[in-house]
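Render this sequence as a predicted structure.
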Amino acid sequence: MKFAFLIRLASLLLVVVLPSDIARSGFGLVAIMFITITSGAGLYGTSVFTRRVAAHPILMVIDVLVAAAILAAVGTQSPLVIYTLSTAVLIGILLTPPVAALVMSVLISSYVLVAIIENADGTVDHRGVTSVLLLPITYATVAALGSIMRALHEAAMIEQSKARRYSEDAARDRERARLARDMHDSVAKSLHGIGLAAAALPRWADNGPEAVAHKAVELQAAAETASQEARDILIALRADTDDRTLAEQLRQVTEDLRTHGLEAGFTLAGIGDCDHQIKSELMSIAGEALENVRRHSRATHVAVRCTGTADSIELQIADDGVGFEPAHTPRGHFGLVGMRERVESIGGTLELSTRSGAGTTITVHSPRTVVTEGSS
């Protein structure tokens, strides 16, 4: 679009460089002022100009009539004729093909009529005929190029809109997957525990009312925990206000393990913080891994180590529990799958080292900053 207005300004430059009487005539000065004003407005307000012409094609017709008037006044040999090429470009870009063809016919007819009047004495030879036909052919060519540019732009806008929709759909899918992981890592585990405890109540009833009362208190506490976890997820969907560093949060969850009778140690080496999104995913992975240690590993000691450099974060969680065989993980247990999905979402990797009777070590390698498309 701006290229068309640069063509208009080029016609003014030719008026200055080439010998011409245009600048000394009244009409020539008016034409120069018109070209200058429209070119400046087009260059600095391209989007507004485009919307106005698209909504009111008559504005383009007025521009064509002005171009015809300039042709009639200065002749087909004047440098200002270059100005009319910009009009042809704008016709192709701004108008739909049927309207563009109609308006172009007016422009070409105006030029041919002026050329015929200039050569009314019949002195034009075959070279003159070629000269007369050259500019109309050029008009049609640049208008066609403008129409192609318009079509390519519209196609690009459609593809951009599709890409935006696909991106939004992918973001929704990622959010659903993240929510599913959060539910599994917290509420689902608590509800599963409540279900198991409730199923065991009939057997506890055989031990007397006191045993049942004790188990009922535990069920109430578990239900309150599940309720709190659900509220925490809802709050996290809106905003995560925890502004502590990754190291501080890891140290806190490690200390919490000690309340369950585990020996837990935390070690920090290098940088202990990262981007918020990466910190959120790493903490979820750590929470899932440590919960598995507490529930299933029968470990007596767990070690959490965070190693940070300028570009990366390594999180390692190792326990001395019973371990397991990854190939024989029971169906329906999605903890490890969720951890892998989380680390992949931030451009990292997860390594698992375990076997029956030999403990488990989970090592996560992650960038410190979110990797986006187009970044180097």
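Summary. The CA atoms of residues 316 and 363 lie 4 Å apart. The first strand starts at residue 263 and ends at 270.
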